[in-house]
From TrEMBL:
Pfam family, one: YkuD
PANTHER family: L,D-TRANSPEPTIDASE, L,D-TRANSPEPTIDASE ERFK_SRFK-RELATED
Protein name, as recorded: L,D-transpeptidase
Keyword Transferase attached: yes
Family under the similarity heading: Belongs to the YkuD family.
Residue positions of the active site: 216 (proton donor/acceptor), 232 (nucleophile)
Key words of the record: Cell shape, Cell wall biogenesis/degradation, Glycosyltransferase, Hydrolase, Peptidoglycan synthesis, Signal, Transferase
L,D-TPase catalytic domain span: 137-256
Signal sequence segment: 1-19
Amino acid sequence: MPRVGLLALAAASSVLAVAAAPAPAATLRAPGAALRAPGDTSPLRGDELLSNEKTVTRWVNPVSRARIRVAPFTHAPAFAHLHLLTEDGRPEIYLALESHVDGRNRAWIHLRVPGRPNGRTGWVLAQSLSELHLVRTKLRINRRTLKATLFKDGNLVWQADIGVGKASTPTPPGLFWVRERLRNLGGGGLYGPWAFGTADYSVLSDWPGGGVIGIHGTNEPQLIPGRPSHGCIRMRNVNISQLARIMPLGTPVEIL
């Protein structure tokens, strides 16, 4: 990626001025940037892709409330701060897309940023983040076929019927990830035995407090497959229990 920062600056002030809506990762990655090997734990060096969000995905926890910037430079505008916890008080997770080492030998990491509006990305100094964690899974949610499919190393390993948002409260599409994993959410049967909080946000959802799109079980299995929810993704309890055994935190979630 890299030359990312260079490309962003070359586009100059017009790019950096849009602090509230930084360019998405796809427009920043330099063609041909090498993907860091899955087993590589050496210090960050130069410009590398850290995730392809298919078979290799890396994620981090923040260790400070550092500013998130639109480019990997300390003078680039900031549009948000890292936050340490999710809405449910779990350690926050950010997907690490790529790295850049600047002229002062400081490593930066390009992150997917949870929150509204969906799809934001930004740069943070690596010293503000934990070590890199690796996952090899990807979850695909298809709102047309009402199927959820989990892949590992690019191979299909699990599939189930789902319920998604109705027309008036849709499940927003895009690229997201699993930020938290909760057992027996709320202490009742409404959400089934397991629930996952994602980085997808909507105006309203089934998640307590609204907003976050969750993936969870249900006490109304007869409504699956279908479109019964306020945005959350529901599945039968047997299926969410299966998923809880094989889908780790940090798994990318593609909602079609």
